[in-house]
Amino acid sequence: MTFTLIEPDLGRISGGLRYNSELSAAAGGRIERITAPGSWPEPTEDDVARLRQLVAQCQSGESQRPVLIDGLIGCSLPTPLSGPVVMLQHSLAQGPSAQRREADCLQAASAVVTTSAFAAAKVARRYDITAEVARPGTHVRPVAQPGSPAHLICLGALEDNKNQLFLAHVLQELRRRDATAWRCTFAGPITDTVYAEGVREALEGLTSVECVGELDEDAVDDLYRHADLLLLPSKEETFGMVVREAAAAAIPSFVTAGTGAQEALGAGRALALDVSAWADLLERWLSDEADRAELAATAREIRESAVPEWNDTARTVLAVLEGQVRVS
């Protein structure tokens, strides 16, 4: 039996859409992706009406097949969808009104899938719902080649949650300390132009920083191939696919403590969002050869161990969908 995954058309690359694409490919033709046009996650009445019609069409037949709905769509609805629906949560709502919608839609769903145990635990605490966990897989990458100066990378959409402004302050602090043996690349689409301008202004004077915008798959591969350390200072993170991708290239990461990125972290550090704390550890990493070598060795060991595969992700999601098939 084949199933349908309905996802938003964001007009850009996102972690959630990349997950959906890899999931569909690993499912061997059993999960078909369909795009729902609309201004998600703030849909119009017409957007909602078209989605309900699309879901009903996908559920029709002798066996009412459950539809897999990207949570960015499914949890932005004013009232829940009907029929068998499995909600795929790439992230969780922030703010009271969004959380109320999310609660209604998740509680009405036949099943819920999250991309991390961290997110599943949060769903359980918030809504008393048991979610199935389908962590992202990854692909083996060539081992990154250390550069000189050290190459720091930050991958993610330029927006408040990804917190590049915080990182800009950290890098400026390194400059004030005369710790300048590094270069840094910011890569990702601009989703908030005002925020992106603020980041650009905060980076002024840092000649070793490059903002390259959204990259295609080949360019991302090349970025990992020549990186020494990934920086992900997100305010909220359900999992952190880029952390796992970096690990597949034996690249350690610094991430925000208390977020789902810690679950993806193998080699690296989880830090509170404090500029001095990040600057301290980065300065140590840059200047202490033993600390840097230890992290690099741990990253290589983790890469050589079992690499999570997208086939495992697909098997988990398909099992959830098959468990919700309703025979007429």
Automatic annotation (TrEMBL):
Alphabetically, the GO molecular function entries are:
glycosyltransferase activity
UniProt-listed SUPFAM superfamilies: UDP-Glycosyltransferase/glycogen phosphorylase (SSF53756)
Q: Name one GO biological process term.
A: lipopolysaccharide biosynthetic process
Q: What is the lineage of its organism?
A: Bacteria, Bacillati, Actinomycetota, Actinomycetes, Micrococcales
Under which name does UniProt file this protein?
Answer: Uncharacterized protein
Q: Which Gene3D superfamilies match?
A: Glycogen Phosphorylase B
**Highest taxon in the source lineage:** Bacteria
**Ranges in a coiled coil:** none
Which Pfam families does the record match to this protein? Glycos_transf_1
Q: Which CDD domains match?
A: GT4_PimA-like
